[in-house]
Every structure is written in structure tokens, then in C-alpha cells.
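Please predict the structure of the following assembly.
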Amino acid sequence: MKYVEEYRDAHLVRGVIDEIRRRVTRPWVLMEICGGQTHAIIRHGLDQLLPPEIELVHGPGCPVCVTPLELIDKALAIASQPGVIFASYGDMLRVPGSGRDLFSVRAAGGDVRVVYSPLDALKIAQQNPEKQVVFFAIGFETTAPANVMSVMQARAVGLKNYSILVSHVRVPPAMQAILSAPHNRVQGFLLAGHVCAVMGYWEYPSLAIQYGVPMAVTGFEPLDLTQGILQTVRMLEEGRVEVENAYPRLVTFEGNRPAQQMIGQVFQERDRKWRGIGMIPNSGWGLRADFDEFNAEKRFDVQQIQPEESPLCIAGLVLQGLKKPHECTAFGVQCTPETPLGATMVSSEGACAAYYRYKRSV
Amino acid sequence: MGIEDGAICPVPLPHTERIVMGHGSGGKMSHDLVARLFVPYFDNPVLRQGDDAGVVRLENGQRLAISTDSHVVKPLFFPGGDIGRLSICGTVNDVAMLGAAPAYLTAGFILEEGLEIDVLERVAASMQAAAQEAGVQIVAGDTKVVERGKGDGLYINTTGVGVIPPGCEISGAQARPGDVVILSGPIGDHGMAVLAARGDLGFEVDVQSDVAPLNKLIAAMLETGTVIHVLRDPTRGGLATTLNEIAMQSGVSILLEEGAIPVRPQVAAICEVLGFDPLYVANEGKLVAILPAQEAGRVLEVMRRTRYGEGAVQIGQVLADSPGRVLMKTRLGSTRVVDRLAGEMLPRIC
């Protein structure tokens, strides 16, 4: 496949790995932020090919994994109501709330539909004027433009039966939380390429300098990932604290300005709970007050739903890079993709699922 | 779930109370449903074999392969095929995968009130054409109608029988260390053709379903006199799930060569866009054959001369260590686990 195969070329990838091997003189701990990167690393077995000095820890960049329990419970409550069509990205259907998931709601008669884009949900709303259509707007900065666009279009065409349940999170505050933790081990970051395609990387240099941690904007194919690792290792070995762009074919410093402006018109920063991690100040987005009519939490009066999460789950430690999935006693035994005990096992981008699918006792 | 010690996460959802879509995926959830619910009631030595068709021995010593399959595909017509052709090929192939020559089929129709007669006739004609191609006859049938809204237009169940030739011992449990794994052509065509035909991808795709009867391909392979240990068609759950079943049934491991597995560029491209892995996408006209390494060259040559085997390639080998596992040597030279499909295959988020 053109424009993909080139970035999976074994010869080129090995060349970059050889260069990493030549550069590295001591152990380094790098974190890849994005769950998509975690999966690519494990799926292609890149971690097996890197020199032993490089330890990759997996970041919290899986939107499914970090969506807090209370948002899932709110989704379940809304989706169970008669007259509601609940539209969601497929992955969210499996995530356990308090005792149920969206698959259960659907099996019990709820109208839960998998869509590929919020604009599909908008179409469903236009075709079903007698129903309330709710889209589960989760994700990092990457999915924000499409979610915002659906609200703007709904307003433009005067749709009264469309709303979104927002659970948006942002990368920089999560990195700040990880870096400021007293037991932090991360010495360098691979920044999430698709997030940066939207947001650019102007938010990161101040963070890098504040914590003395170099970063490289990194893509998702083996060659992109190894290039990002190489650039980060080079900065670490040379004692430079900078933000470099190892994914220039997609990412610019400024990012997608029109998309950022649209996000700013519809969303505003707010505190967000992250599943397994807890509250991170200003780490998310919610709808601005003048878009209240599209706010599903207000339309369906579910704001009082606030369940407590179990303190036992180590998903939070996995999401912060403090534990590896297989260090959990339940991993692969009681906890598998069919009987997930935590969101990191549920989502196809979750670190536990990546380990389970590709890495058991290889 | 009495989990007492160690740090663990909350709330498992094994879906034991109601049927969810994942139970029909052909993956682990389907397998577990059969094992936990049906096997305790229906258990007998024939069923316990766990192959695509059941094998019964007649009083005269002949062995009969029997298989049944229900077809609920949506839409009814898709590029490369339709529910009628699918209903014939699916059952013909399941019978043929034990080395049997499928001869007779039955067909049961569940029709939804309001279905256009013209649609039904097109489906029947397509079934006849597929049956003729496969050399089988439909010898019994049944028709039921359900109220509007209680069905998806048309469901078809077919059952097929065929006689297994004497001495033929093909089964999912016969894979041996030292064998090689052969695949009859590129994977993922059917699943992606049907997905694209649903029209909700938002883009056009040039993919045809591979739905085809494979009994003549198999007959040609058997005519070489080669010992074939396993034949399977990787339908729901895809190649990965089928190979996992074989690895478990035979108590061996299978090592695949990532670069050797053929995938059409357009199928690979849609999978990339949607976040699917072609290894888990359904096929309806492909087979996996496992046989001794020294026979591979001869069998591949014969397969490549047939219509449905022209893309046949060797994709891996059977090993003795870590029984039940399927592993893959990646293009980069690393090794990873290839698990079976867990529940329903879902598109990714971003």
C-alpha cells in the first residue's frame, strides 16, 4: 500500500534502530503518550528490536481507557431511556460502567448504534426527528474538531433533537500531572502525532523546559516511531531539552488553526476526571454555556450520577506508566478482553489489551 | 468473581445474562457460548470432534459429513455475491473441509412480511447457479414468514451432507509439528465487501466478496494423493481465529510469516482507515490447508491451476512448542502473538 509500506520497510527501520544503538550510552525511560502508538510498538514488536537501554512506558493516551466511570454511567442512563438513539464509537460499547456496558443496554432493548463519525450521528438525528439522538463525544484533541463541527452544523440547520455527551481530555495537562508526580520516571516523551496534527506543538516547549524533558512529535508507523525514539535519545544523550518534530509530513508547529478556532468557539477548558488517575485540573473540554442546548448532561438531567471507582484497580498505575500490564496479578487470568476488569484491557488502544493480544509470553 | 488477593481492577462483564452481538462473532465469545450452553445439553462423541462438520459412521462403514449454517447477511446483495450464493457455498465448504464430497443440501427460508417476490426469486436463481457450480442438489426445503419488523427481509439456513472417502482423516486435530500452513489466496475480501456495501463508510471501495464453493479445489488437492492433515475455511473471526482453533485442537503452535500473508491493496487500505486487522476479517472463498512440508510444492502447484486457488501461498509452519498458540514473525523480524477474535470487531476511534 502506497504511503504506508514505505514506513514499514524493514531495512529502513533497522537502519534507524542501528543508529539508536550507536547513540545510546546509558539507560533512558521514554513514554509514548498515545495508545495508538503503544499498539503499533507492540504489534510490530519494536520493543524487542530496541537496545535494552531504552525502556518504553505507555502513557495515558487512550480516550476509551481514561473516560471516567461517571461518564460511562451517564451514557448508560441516557441510552436506556425510551425515545433515545445513542450513537457511539464502537470501542465505547464494551467499557464497563457500574455493572453494565452499552452492549448490555442494547441487548435489553436500548437503541445503541455504532457510528464512524459524529457527522453520522447528526444524519441519524435528521432522519429521526421524533427521537432524541445523543452522540458520545469522547477523545483527545484529535476527535475534537469533528465533534465540535457536529454541534455547529446542528445549530446551523436548527436541529432540536441532537446533543452530545462530552468527555474530552487534553494531552498537555496529563503530561504535567505525570511529570510533577514525585515518583515520575519519564525522561523523554514521544508526543502523539495525530493530536499535534490538530493542535500543533506550540503548547509543549514550555512544558519541556519546566521539567527538563525533551520531546519529539512522533507518528504511528514503525519508521515514524523509531525516528521519534532516535531524536529523543539524541537530545537526551546530547543534554538538549527541546521539542523536535519527527512527524513533519503531517504536523506543523502551529497545527490546524481553523480547527483550533472552532474548538475554542464551542468548547472551554474544564477540570476532568481521568479513569484510574483522578481529577486533573483544566485537563478537559466541555461545551460553552451558550451551547447548553446541545449538552446531553443537561438535557437528560444526569448530572447527579457520580459513582465511586474501586481503589484496587491498577489501571491508573498502568496509565501513568508506573506499572506494566503484566505486573497485574489479574492480567490474562481473570482479566482478558472478553472479561475486562478495567478499561485498559477493554479498549483496542489500551495498554493491557495490546500486551494481551500481541505479547503474552513471546 | 471471587478475586481476593492482589491489586486488580473492578467490574468484569462476561455477558452471561443476555445475548449480545459478540456471541455471534465467530470468535471466543461464540466459542464460549457453545461450550457453556449447548455442549452440556447436546454432548456426544461426534460433536466433541469440534470440526466444521459432524462426522457420523453408517452401518455399512461409510462416513457422512453433516454441516448446517444460517445466513443473516445484510445487505442481501453485495459486490461479488448475495445471500443465496453465500448460503450454498458456506455449507458446501464446511462439508468439503473434512475431505467429503458434498452432494445434497436442504434449504430453510425465513421471510419477512413485505419482502419483494422479485428479490426472493433473484436469490433462488443465485442459489441454483451456485449449487450447479458446486455440483450439489437442493433436495428438501422449508419456508416460514415472520411479521414485518421481525426479520431482516430474508434469512436462509442450509444443511449439507457428503460422503468422506475411505482413508481420509482430515480434521482440525491433525496438525503436526513439521507441517506447513498453506492459504488459498488473499484474505479479507468478503468482510470488507459486505461492510462497504452497507454504504455507511462514506467512500466507494472496489472490493468483491470472494464467496465461492471450494469443493472442486479440494477434490483437485486430494487427487494428488497427498496426505492433507487439516482443511479449514477462515470465515467469521478470520484467519487468526481459524488458526487459533486448529492450534488448540491439535495441541501445536503455528508460526506465521507476516510478509507471506496476501492481502489485496484495497482491502489493506480500508482496514487501515477503519482500524481493522485483515487477519480477523471474514472470508467465504478461502481455505487453509496444513500438510507435511515435503508435500507443499506439489499441492501448491495443483491449487494454483484451479480457479479459486490461483493465489495459493505458504504462510507459516507448525511447531511443537507452546501448544495452542499462534505466533507471527513480523516484517521487521520481531515475533508477536496472534490471538483469536474476542468479541465483535469494532472500528477504532482515532
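Residues 2 and 42 of chain B are 30 Å apart (CA to CA). The radius of gyration of chain B is 20 Å.
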